[in-house]
């Protein structure tokens, strides 16, 4: 069956090429429906990246072909930019202190999780291919090349899940380290495998030494280019730190320039972007670090475009039954190899139990480098195994790009690392007034000690002041808010000395200009603090009944306590 859905829509709904205003319309379609798909899948508790890819499949080569192959190819620069952004942010996670602490662990796991699937997939593919072809030489060549390709892991889909679920801990750190480096191992394995395969098939190809020299030039050249642009960016950014818009412009400009230079020189733009990020986080002045936060705010729409296009490129209708069988065995063998290799590497390097147990779930995604190497195989072996390898990698990418992000979510969730990578601002954005606590006591409570009646004496207020955490009070009459007593007002009253002894709450209160409700968010509360130029706000329900008092000091204490709790959780995961 060949592309059964491609003729359902009328011709005007197919984008055969990019022309003028069509680009704007096409970007709108991709971004709107991609974001919609991501949101729907989030509602289903499935990582949003799967939704992006599914939308791409529906509108791309496997579905209605709203995006024709020529249009998808014309949008390749979007993929290039996206991968550079991903590489830059991954580089920002590779801090030297982390590398020193986990370096041996990274290398040990990296070697085994890359080499083990190489052998397992190689043996399986060779055996099954021989059953169909009865040609051992061709079967062995295909097994070697597919074994080398399967060692690569896609950083994009994996890291998108880590960002979406705000993960932090030893498993997250290990995943960032592994996906940053295992593509280089895949390139080396492919150089070795393709050289042997070329000899077996009697073809002409560069010698192993020449290929390894090319790879060395690619790796070290990319690192140098990225580091140079990182140095230039650090010099510029340190002088414009107060202008966030300009910082973001310089950062993206440097990243895109770096990417363009790599394309011209034939270098790896992902590795160069990673080196740029690595330089910025480790060698640039500490005050330049906000470039990563600013860049990450720019990435969501770019990621939507990228993953929709990843799905659009996949064509499931070109696979024959024998190739489908090999593709299934490839996925199973790769999964088994990644699992055995990462678990054994983790055990050997004494990695935390969560890393040993759940890392295999985070290494299943396959995309950019694997597809790139399959294209290289198509060019290296055009008359023998090249076309079949390209089809197999296309089919397997379709499978693992859908199940990979789900497995990553499962792994980091079971490892207990979701929701740990949060900042003060994140807590503020996701907290409402009724969530705020002081110790084990909620501040929003109709029985709060911060609520006093109009006849409460000054002495009673002072006695409460010495035993409770609140510094301000709200005054009620018949369960209705009538006033607020601030710390500053109490200080003024105490200056009266003996004259103040007979005063009641109603005598010393002020009429509150602003109040908040239990459902008020903390950002909204801070806006009210700013408007009222005060440190405390009465909390009232919809009937104006007092429910407590919200104080800036209490919010600060609550946020600080939450951050400490999260840090203790992260520290416990390292053990």
What's the short version?
By secondary structure, the chain is mostly helical. The protein is 66% helix and 5% strand.
What order do the helices and strands come in, and which of them pair?
Blueprint: H1 22-43, H2 48-59, H3 69-74, H4 76-93, H5 96-133, H6 136-149, H7 155-164, H8 170-201, H9 208-237, H10 244-265, H11 269-282, H12 290-313, H13 321-348, H14 353-358, H15 368-380, H16 386-414, H17 424-429, E1 437-438, E2 441-442, E3 451-453, H18 458-467, E4 473-477, E5 480-485, H19 487-494, H20 505-508, H21 522-532, E6 536-540, E7 546-551, H22 552-573
Parallel strand pairs: 3-4
Antiparallel strand pairs: 1-2, 4-5, 6-7
Describe the structure.
By secondary structure, the chain is mainly alpha-helical. It is built from 22 helices and seven strands. It has helices at 22-43, 48-59, 69-74, 76-93, 96-133, 136-149, 155-164, 170-201, 208-237, 244-265, 269-282, 290-313, 321-348, 353-358, 368-380, 386-414, 424-429, 458-467, 487-494, 505-508, 522-532, 552-573, and strands spanning 437-438, 441-442, 451-453, 473-477, 480-485, 536-540, 546-551. The strands form three sheets. Strands 3-4-5 form a three-stranded mixed beta sheet.
Write out key terms for the chains shown.
7 strands; 3-stranded mixed sheet; 575 residues; mainly alpha
